[in-house]
Amino acid sequence: MSESARDFDAGSRVVRHRLADRLYHWLMATAMLVLLFTGFLPILGVRFPWVDAHWIAGVILIALLLFHIFRAFFILRFADMWVGWREFRESFSATTREVFGGNRPNRRFGKYSVGQKMFHHGVATVVLTACITGVIMMVGVDSPFWERNPLFITEKTRGAVFLLHGLAGLGSITLIMVHVYFAIRPEKRYMTRSMIRGWISRREYEAHHNPELWDGNE
Fold first, then answer.
1. At 1, is the secondary structure helix, strand, or coil?
2. What is the pLDDT of residues 61-80, one digit of tens each?
3. Phi, psi at residue 109, to the nearest 5°?
4. Is the Cα torsion angle 195, 200, 206, 208 positive or negative in sign?
5. CATH numeric code, 14-76+108-214
6. What confidence tens digit (pLDDT) does each residue in 169-178 have?
7. Which of helix, strand or coil describes residue 143?
């Protein structure tokens, strides 16, 4: 049985992120930072035994992604991250009024805004690209799972894989910077707190969220 999208606690709090999802978020963030540091510091001339740390963090990230995909399909509501026509129309209309100097709209969205959903899709694309290319690259490295096989792919294919993996790494840096920027903005801090404590207040829920969109009635 899937978890409820909205869960009130004594009428004063709304559960936004359950413990499993908060742990996934912070463990994924840690794995990505380890991957970035071990991937880019050697390029900058910092010498340390980075290969093992890099692929181990990669395996952990893949395991976390599989866990998240399982929860998204079988426990959470997979549709929560898709942009519904109603919320897209309302978001587009509100943005148009802001750009052309109309009245500042009271923009209330569901559990996630259209911007957050699009950001999620961007992160998913970048991370999946990094993981798939990383697994292909791992075949050329000795590991507990197999002996290295440098002839697994051709030189031309290896070049394309390395390019995609590097671009995914650079994309991850950009996405992390954007994520941190919005996480520390005053109007977004209640969301950041919910990723630590798991809940938002009823007042925050009513001020920023549309109950119909939160519940998926689009």
1. coil
2. 999 999 999 988 888 777 67
3. -125, -175
4. negative
5. 1.20.950.20
6. 999 999 999 9
7. strand
